């Protein structure tokens, strides 16, 4: 099934060059980190490592982004949902999501044909990178160079609504979903959408 999606993962075509940058902890006093961490709470096998680690250069970029954000919105902070994810955790979450999809559709894995299993995995891989052990095509989070973030409002003590929940299993989680939606909107529709988001944020 992994081979079936290889051509659809553009980052697999980017050569991997080891930078030898260390993994460093994301400081909890400068960012808001998910607590409890959602995948740890599910029992994902992190072992002795923390999901709140990134490569050093990534942390520098996060700190720069935090500074720019607070210049414009002093009461907003970057909310770290997830960062470092070993391949074993990636596999755990792929399997977990696959099982959730089967349950939501009333299906049993033992009754699926090979092609049906591959088709559902293809859907799962739209949200999760395949847990590939090949060092040339790793899941981005397993490199320590990817981080899932949203925004946190320190006044409301809630995350800022960004259009869909993190990890939602739907087209709204696809990278270009909202960009494509915006292109199809009229100015009036765009204004209404902005007002709806602002209203959801106030709520």
Verbal overview:
The chain is of the alpha+beta class and 203 residues long. It is built from seven helices and six strands; from the N terminus they run αββαβαβααββαα. The strands form two sheets. The protein has a four-stranded mixed β-sheet, with helices on one face. The chain has a two-stranded antiparallel sheet with strand order 1-3. It is globular and about 55 Å long.
Strand content: 5-15%
The low-pLDDT segments are 1-7, 189-203
How many angstroms does the end-to-end distance come to?
Answer: 42 Å
H-E order = HEEHEHEHHEEHH
* Rg value: 19 Å
Largest sheet: 4 strands, mixed
- Count of alpha and pi helical runs: 7
- Can you give the mean pLDDT? 85
In one word, what is the shape? globular
Residues in helices, as a percent range: 25-40%
Strand order, main sheet: write it out: 2-4-5-6
Query: How many β strands by DSSP?
Result: 6
Q: Which class do the helix and strand fractions yield?
A: alpha+beta
């Amino acid at each position: 099934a992994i081979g079936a999606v290889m051509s659809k993962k553009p980052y697999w075509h980017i050569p991997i060059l080891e930078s030898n940058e260390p993994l460093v902890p994301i400081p909890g006093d400068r960012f808001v980190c998910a607590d409890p961490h959602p995948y740890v709470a599910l029992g994902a096998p992190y072992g002795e490592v923390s999901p709140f680690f990134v490569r050093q250069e990534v942390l520098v970029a996060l700190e720069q982004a935090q500074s720019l954000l607070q210049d414009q919105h002093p009461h907003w902070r970057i909310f770290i949902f997830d960062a470092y994810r070993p391949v074993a955790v990636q596999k755990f979450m792929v399997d977990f999501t696959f099982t959730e999809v089967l349950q939501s559709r009333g299906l049993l894995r033992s009754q699926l044909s090979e092609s049906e299993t591959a088709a559902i995995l293809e859907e799962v891989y739209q949200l999760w990178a395949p847990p590939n052990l090949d060092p040339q095509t790793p899941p981005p989070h397993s490199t320590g160079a990817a981080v899932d973030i949203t925004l946190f409002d320190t006044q409301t003590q809630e995350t800022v609504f960004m259009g869909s929940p993190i990890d939602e299993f739907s087209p709204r989680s696809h990278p270009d979903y909202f960009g494509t939606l915006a292109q199809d909107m009229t100015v009036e529709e765009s204004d209404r959408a902005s007002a709806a988001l602002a209203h959801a944020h106030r709520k």
